[in-house]
TrEMBL record:
The lineage of its organism: Bacteria, Pseudomonadati, Pseudomonadota, Gammaproteobacteria, Oceanospirillales. This is Protein-L-isoaspartate O-methyltransferase. Its EC number is 2.1.1.77. GO terms for cellular component: cytoplasm. The gene is pcm. It is found in: Cytoplasm. InterPro entries: PCMT, SAM-dependent_MTases_sf.
Amino acid sequence: MSERWNLNGIGMTSQRTRDRMVQRLRDQGIKNEELLTELACLPRHIFVDEALSHRAYEDIALPIGYQQTLSRPWIVARMTECLLELPQRPVRVLEIGTGSGYQTALLARLFNTIFTVERIASFQNKTSSRFSALGLNNIRMKHGDGFEGWPDVSPFDAIIVTAAPEFIPEALLTQLKPSGCMLLPVGNCNQQELVRIIRTSHGYQKESLESVRFVPLLDGVV
Ligand code: SAH
């Protein structure tokens, strides 16, 4: 499948453009070198339609169809860095909201096994051919409602949600391992906070990190 895409890129999708994105992320406070190296390698331009590929390395969210967006590089990097800063490196990571698959692919380069749930079935063909083109074989995908998580293969060391519910979904909390970490945006379309939750021996420790803007987490599948 890889002949479908120019993985290295050219012009606005070239290595130089990727390096400039990484420099901007450094300037914005992203410090983890392993993460920055992966971001410099991962061809973000194959995760959007070709007509938009020249904008793939700008610090903006990009439309991917069905009123959904590929999140801006900074938030993808920030959430991934939070997982890399945990005292123990997560092994099994659940992602809710596969979308373009860019965040999934980044996670797959850094963690052992990624489970990803998406409610829009038509995203899944495109994303799985992107994963094969990149040689990623540690991703399991499911078409389903992320509010329910993925109970059959739970528990997870970490859960990352890339669309915002108004309240923290209870089912996701119960699928975290002890000491596991969940990162998710919580709020409505006017105001959202990125929240970090750690499962402790006596409950859940919750902390708001910063204001963010994500598309809403929606009920049901299409
Ligand atoms: N991580 C994605 C972000 C896509 S936007 C990327 O990097 O491209 C958010 C995604 O969450 C969309 O694909 C949307 O369809 C999906 N989503 C929204 N509600 C969902 C739900 N309840 N279950 C699973 N996926 C959901």
